[in-house]
Amino acid sequence: MTFPAGWTRGSHTYDGVSHGTYRRGSGPAVVVVHEIPGITPEVAAFAHELVDAGYTVVMPSLFGTDGAPMTARSTARVLRQVCVSKEFTKLRSGVTTPVAGWLRSLARELHEEVGGRGVGALGMCFTGGFALAMMVDPSVTAPVLCQPSAPFAVTPGRSRDLNLSPGDLDIVKGRCAAGQQVLGLRYRSDPAVGRRFGTLTTELGDAFVRVELEGRGHSTVTTHRQQVAVDAVLEFLAANLRPAS
User: Fold this and answer.
1) Which residues constitute the domain of residue 196?
2) pTM of the prediction?
3) In this structure, what are the phi and psi dihedrals at residue 176, rounded to the nearest 5 degrees?
4) Structurally, how many domains does the chain consist of?
5) Taking phi first (over 0 means left), then psi (-120 to 50 degrees means alpha), and beta for anything else, what does residue 224 get?
6) Is residue 199 included in any domain, yes or no?
7) CA pair distance 193, 173, nearest whole angstrom
8) CB–CB of 16/87 below 8 Å?
9) Where is each Dienelactone hydrolase domain found (predicted)?
10) Among candidates 153, 159, 111, 150, which has minimal Cα distance to 131?
């Protein structure tokens, strides 16, 4: 059976790099970037919620086995894959993950096709900060950071890092100063996020909208989802992608 059922399989190529994609729905475009270990059934289910809410959703497949459940074995296998890939930064501070260029290209193409005010970008866990990097491109008008966890928070400095180069951070700050907002979601006791929410508030001020859940969960809209988090995402996307009333 094709996974996920009912989605159209495609691909996108930028600068000689190709990744598969899944697409479904109509309306404003949203790019949902999966967490480790890949497009799990929980990730696909969340993406389908966005389709039901009236969005054109594209899920790039960056690593892992599409449709495989999250297990200790699959997570360990994908971590090994990610750690040797040049597309992703794992420990370096003050740099933008290389795959951001590919994701920005995907967002631009979607915006050219679908039109509207812009494209939503949602990353999770290891890819959480990718949505911020995508915001460097003006086509992205609704960046959502779900428990951003890269670079790995193994030192205080890395736990504060936003996975952005200084130049890209300046562009993000400029867009926020002009009125753009950024949504961030996390569990308060999640160590993987480190101190990034503090950095985001310091750098972006009131433009950074924080949704912080109580407890020791991690995946705010998938495995440990809470409806308040999903509702916050839907409200943010509507405010930044739907026609202004």
Assistant:
1) 8-241
2) 0.96
3) -65, -40
4) 1
5) alpha
6) yes
7) 20
8) no
9) 26-143
10) 150
Question: For residue 3, is it within any domain?
Answer: no
Residue appearing with tokens 């890209």: 168
Residue 76 inside a domain? The answer is: yes
**24 φ/ψ angles, rounded to the nearest 5 degrees:** -160, 150
Other beta carbons less than 10 A from residue 181's beta carbon: 17
pLDDT > 80? residue 1: no
The partner residues of 22 in beta bridges, in order of sequence, read 9, 59
107: enclosing H helix or E strand: helix 99-114
Residue 215's pLDDT is: 86
**Taking 80 as the threshold, does the pLDDT of residue 3 lie above it?**
no
Q: For residue 209, give the CATH number of its domain.
A: 3.40.50.1820
Geometric angle at alpha carbon 146, from 143 and 147, rounded to 5°? 135
For residue 151, being part of any structural domain is answered with yes
Give the pLDDT band of residue 20 (cuts 50, 70, 90).
Answer: very high
